[in-house]
Amino acid sequence: YPEGPQNEGKHLFKPLNVITQHAFLSYHPGYIWPDFHNMSYKRCPGCVLFHRWLFMARLCPPTNAIKTSKYNPFTFLPLNLFEQFQRIANAYFLFLLVLQVIPQISSLSWFTTVVPLVLVLTVTAAKDATDDIVSKLRGEKWMNVQVGDIIKLENNQFVTADLMLLSSSEPLNLVYIETAELDGETNLKVRQALTVTGDLGEDVEKLADFNGEVRCEPPNNRLDRFMGTLTYAGQKYPLDNEKVLLRGCTLRNTQWCFGLVLFGGPETKLMQNCGKTTFKRTSIDRLMNVLVLCIFGFLAFMCTVLAIGNCFWELNEGSNFTAFLPRQDGNEATFSAFLAFWSYVIILNTVVPISLYVSVEIIRLGNSFYIDWDGKMYHAANDTPAEARTTTLNEELGQIQYVFSDKTGTLTQNIMTFNKCSVNGKSYGEVTDSYKVDFSFNSLADPRFVFHDHSLVEAVKLENPEVHAFFRLLALCHTVMAEEKREGELFYLAQSPDEGALVTAARNFGFVFRSRTPDSVSIVEMGRQRSYELLAILDFNNVRKRMSVIVRSPEGKLSLYCKGADTIIYERLHRSCSKLMDVTTEHLNEFAGEGLRTLALAYKDLDEEYFNGWKRRHHEVSTSLDGREGKLDELYEEIEKDLLLLGATAVEDKLQDGVPQTIELLSKAHIKIWVLTGDKQETAENIGYSCNLLREEMNEVFVVSGNSPEDVRQELRSEVSPIGKCFPSHPIHFFVLIAYALERGSELAFLRLACLCKAVICCRVTPLQKAQVVELVKKHKQAVTLAIGDGANDVSMIKAAHIGVGISGQEGMQAVLSSDYSFAQFRFLQRLLLVHGRWSYLRMCKFLRYFFYKNFTFTFVHFWYAFFCGFSAQTVYDEWFITLYNLVYTALPVLGMSLFDQDVNDAWSFQHPQLYVPGQLNLYFSKKAFFKCALHSCYSSLVLFFIPYAAVHDTVRDDGKDVADYQSFALLTQTCLLFAVTIQLGFEMSYWTAVNTFFVLGSLAMYFAVTFTMYSDGMFLTLPSAFPFIGTGRNSLNQPNIWLTILLTSILCVLPVVTYRFLFIQLCPTINDKVQVRQAKATPPPPPRRTRIRRTSSRRSGYAFSHAQGYGDLVTSGRFLRRPALPRSSGFSHAGRTTTSFSPMGRSAGYSPTGRPQNAKVSDVEVTSLQMYKTIRDPAL
């Protein structure tokens, strides 16, 4: 199609080649040739030809259409009603409605059931429709795109299928994409097309004539990898993730690009990741299901008792009434009892809480808004408020027993600063005075970088070869991108904050990384511009735990520079480095004591002939489709041997604000905190001490670090006994999981041991193992769990826990997108749990207790009345009162309590974290509390029936007329009921507001207004059959004895409650009672702040690398920043420095060196010899 807005979004299609059956089967061995007559089609996902064959038009290949909405205008009503009637209570009330249309059974009008049922269905349907409309996916114009099509995208367009990039408008065929909808990261990523396809440009004819074949992996959900090959003109070209645009990306800063559709519709990687999310339900929801079944059983029991009573009454007393209540022919007592059973199913239907579900949803929605609106959980630094991403789990926040937390980016800031280093056996970085190092000799230095050890910069100035080699490695061995908008104004884009900190350190000490191309790296070494030929990048991954670069110096020297985890580097060192390794190890232990993240640095010189052979083998492996990754690892392992040690770096990952105080507070609330991290034991242990998870008084430290499943099982068995013996008197321990503890046969022993410990830290844990630990606790401890993290590696853990919390940190937003609640800082977790969670749980429990009380009391009065009306299924109340009781008269007061009530304010909640414990023990609502409510309702119903019955029995009005008619008794009983349940609500509320008061008094006023209106002459004359209680209100409520009866029943109903609570508070008060009394007398002091404890350790900290695949392929393929480099100056003078900045990439989105002004004063430093262990003698270094 020609260019133009009228053709925007249309795909190019030009079928050229007709493939015969024989030729096709040669490409697809085992493929079933389609039957053209019935149009069957079987697609081979492992092979995509550039041109759709002519017969494929007849085979109807899968399109790019997907469906993300549940309904459409035609299916909404039937599907939604079908889903709603799967709820037992709704189906039950529909069944009641059917019974009510049978005249022989029903004694109630149909509207008593229809009105509440329709209201519930309407509110729920409106909510479902709103959610479904929001979830509809945009981009319907792309639905007809098919595999093999070539499409054109323009700037800011949404990528709607998985594409192989063919060409683009940018230099070197680069494109810039935003992947926020895939991983939550808003920083731009770079992709680059193959040169062979990039030369096609935007020539539509060339693109259509291009004939090639792509063989790739089948559809899968791996967003971080893609494997395939392009075959063209007899040559094979490797395809990986950097040459693919995935559905969900957005094209940015790129005028246009062309792509070949590899996967469409549900086969795209984005849709493969959109599996069904587990529906999370609270423990109260699960309990409610059990209670509703119990209620059904109890309802059947009551109806059976009353049906039997009807049978006996008909046999013994029924014949006395046949004169004016003649029986129909054939109606025996048993048949009458059968009809009475179903009649009482209708009469007693209010015992089943249909309106409960709607009220619960309203309460949860309101409590979710409180979280969203909480200004104390708003992080102003990055303009991030707290967000309740679900409205169904609020009360579960008040019952958390286990918190599973990530470390990096969750407890720490994931903002790295270069603090210390060890070079050739000498340690640098100790702060001996307050004077900062003056970097004025380097105009390219970052003014925000702060360092206090002057001896290191003096060693640089003295041209110490080991120190120069150390910083040269940091300037060359990385995948950082550099951009220089103006002369001397450098912007670094780093894969991780660790790399950004190390390159910035090298920059300040005189080794400035300036720019790179696909095959070179330009640096400024102490004022001299030097360009190194970049021959290979051996990239970092989770298995290698190191990265290397192979470069050729301007003098022609071939060198390999390597950095990585100290244990990994040590295994590959030359034997001559053993003494230096021992000294460096001591320094690493010192760094670990301060919780620093470390890397070891090493290098080796390479032989030209050997390297050429190695590079040839590397190219062959990189173009293979089978086992590519394993073969590359073998090649990397081969060349990274006999390295020479240079030293080590130490980077600080600072704790987030308030982490120690939060952990201490949660521990006092009896919440167990487990840290699950991929770091090594030493790093996790030192962070544990820094954040108060571990304390100095923890004398018993248990470590499980077996290297085989059998070793781990043996260690677990041996540790259980000593922990069990000291547990009663010393319940504080530290337990570390290293490996194999989650295998079958060890997991239960691990769980028993871990649950005896106060603090648990699991190290070297993969994302899948994080989820396994959470599932293990959920399954065997039956405890409510919460998982909190900030990275993509925490998503599985967040989804597995009952509650998932995402932190919007430096690792993108994927954890937030998968979470139930999100905020910006770990310290907000204490407010989420101890305030919002506890209040939500308390409010929900109070609501449920009161709701069951008022409904059971309402229903039981019918039960007692049956014994006085011949079991005839006559109602004791007016039909309009039955209809409006839950919808109008008692709805708003209980909602007011459930939305505004609080036993103590937030300050006292922090001051007394023990207030959280009752929620963990299910003390506020349980089966026991439910049966207490039932007994209380039974007592109240007895009072509400028999006191009014006795009060009007043989009683006359002031004028001598009888008041003992049915209508007057019904009015009196329902008025007493409403006053009794309203007063009970007042006793339940701990926190009265103007809204609560208005709801309570307004509901009573509404009752009398509606009553006098419906009992008026006008309503009777309008519709006599619907309003038979003419004049009952004014004739009854003007009698003093009626009001005295109301007062007496109200007092008798609440008297046991008042007595019980008074004695309970006096004799055995709960923590809530004590704190409420204290709150009424005084204001709480501010919560105490615990000082951080620094601890020295003999264990090394974790390596400072991100746990993600590196950007080595990105660098070597030329996907660098498109702005051309400015003319370089050496940059070294004593003039003032230009302002610089650092804009990290990916996980390092928040990296920033410490920003404080420089101090020009330099202390006198004694020149020291750094030649303790001479291992580098080559002047080229």
Automatic annotation (TrEMBL):
P-type ATPase C-terminal domain mapped to chain residues: 816-1069
* Positions of transmembrane segments: 108-126, 290-315, 335-358, 847-868, 880-900, 929-949, 969-987, 994-1015, 1042-1064
Binding positions for Mg(2+)? Answer: D406, T408, D790, D794
Please state every residue range assigned to the domain named P-type ATPase N-terminal: 62-114
Q: Which GO terms describe its molecular function?
A: ATP binding; ATP hydrolysis activity; ATPase-coupled intramembrane lipid transporter activity; magnesium ion binding
Q: Which UniProt keywords apply?
A: ATP-binding, Magnesium, Membrane, Metal-binding, Nucleotide-binding, Translocase, Transmembrane, Transmembrane helix
**Composition bias, Basic residues:** 1089-1098
Q: Where does ATP bind?
A: D406, K407, T408, E499, F540, K563, R597, T677, G678, D679, R764, K770, N793, D794
Identify which top EC class this enzyme belongs to: translocase
Which is one Gene Ontology cellular component term of this protein? trans-Golgi network
One Pfam family hit: Cation_ATPase
Q: Which reaction does it catalyse?
A: ATP + H2O + phospholipidSide 1 = ADP + phosphate + phospholipidSide 2
Task: Supply the Gene3D superfamilies for this chain.
Answer: Calcium-transporting ATPase, cytoplasmic domain N, Calcium-transporting ATPase, cytoplasmic transduction domain A, HAD superfamily/HAD-like
Q: Where is the composition biased (Polar residues)?
A: 1130-1143
Membrane topology per the record?
Answer: Multi-pass membrane protein
Q: Which GO BP terms sit in this record?
A: Golgi organization; phospholipid translocation
What's the superkingdom here?
Answer: Eukaryota
Report residue spans for region: Disordered. Answer: 1078-1101, 1126-1163
Q: Where is the active site?
A: D406
Tell me its EC number(s), please: 7.6.2.1
Q: Where mainly found?
A: membrane
Q: Which PANTHER family match?
A: PHOSPHOLIPID-TRANSPORTING ATPASE FETA, PROBABLE PHOSPHOLIPID-TRANSPORTING ATPASE
Stated family: Belongs to the cation transport ATPase (P-type) (TC 3.A.3) family. Type IV subfamily.
What's this protein's name?
Phospholipid-transporting ATPase
Q: Which organism is it from?
A: Cyclopterus lumpus (Lumpsucker)
